[in-house]
Design brief:
Blueprint (H helix, E strand, L loop, with lengths): L2 H26 L3 H10 L13 H12 L4 H6 L6 H12 L4 H11 L6 H6 L9 H11 L5 H14 L8 H7 L6 H17 L1 H9 L5 H13 L5 H8 L4
């Protein structure tokens, strides 16, 4: 056997060994009641791929796995079979401290994200330290044909660009999305509800001018009315804009 072929064989065996070890730990943490609960929250995910591990246990395992020298093998081993593997992947990425490495890992993983929970719980801390580079990636993600990549992009705009780094071009980026998928529509509505709480003067014209599709428009107003951060008089005005 050629030396390079032998190296690949050994590398593959080690990768399988690591994955098997991780799955054994996940099944040891299994909670049948929580599995049933979680399966209802992510109805588009095959229940057979949900093990049923609670989020605090997954976060703790992710912190321990992130310290391993061979964790890169797990991050490269895509697609994963189990929902909890995807959750671990998201939590491990969220802890990466090097911005460029983190952006690269996020971009590689996003096409394999298949549910809202993994999408929304992937929130790298390092993104808050260099928003210029993050914005470059957001501009790429937000035009992706993959719905959870778009949802993630809007979520990052909502998390990092509605406060001191806000710019009027950001809600325009979100308004230009023409979503057909429920999980993208919901994130767009969530974004505008949050923008109405934090950047009202910039966000309200999008509602007044009905820039969003009917469902997303009305959902954004609903979520705004439910928010404690919007004063009553503004809520009443927003309710008058429903259609």
């Amino acid at each position: 056997m050629a030396e390079e072929t032998l190296r690949e064989k050994i590398r593959g065996e080690k990768k399988d060994e690591l994955r098997g070890e991780i799955i054994d730990v996940l099944f040891a943490l299994r909670d049948a009641e929580y599995r049933a609960f979680m399966s209802r929250l992510i109805p588009n995910v095959d229940p057979e791929t949900v093990i049923g591990v609670r989020t605090p246990a997954l976060r703790d395992l992710a912190r321990r796995l992130a310290k391993r020298d061979d964790i890169g093998d797990f991050l490269c081993d895509l697609p994963h079979r189990y929902f909890e593997e995807n959750q671990l992947h998201a939590f491990i990425i969220s802890g990466i401290k090097d911005l460029d490495v983190c952006l690269g890992e996020v971009s590689r993983f996003l096409p394999f994200v298949d549910n809202w929970a993994t999408c929304d719980q992937m929130s790298p801390k390092v993104f808050g330290k260099n928003r210029d580079k993050l914005l470059e990636s957001i501009r790429e993600w937000i035009v992706s044909p993959h719905m959870y990549t778009v949802r993630f992009a809007v979520g990052m705009l909502m998390t990092h660009f509605l406060d001191e780094d806000f710019g009027p071009e950001y809600p325009e980026m979100v308004a230009r999305i023409e979503p057909e998928e429920y999980y993208v529509k919901m994130m767009v509505a969530w974004y505008f509800a949050t923008a109405l709480a934090k950047q009202y003067e910039a966000a309200v014209p999008y509602i007044e001018q009905r820039r969003l599709d009917r469902w997303t428009h009305n959902k954004a107003i609903q979520k705004s009315v439910e928010s404690r951060r919007i004063p009553p008089e503004r809520k009443e005005y927003l309710k008058s804009l429903k259609y």
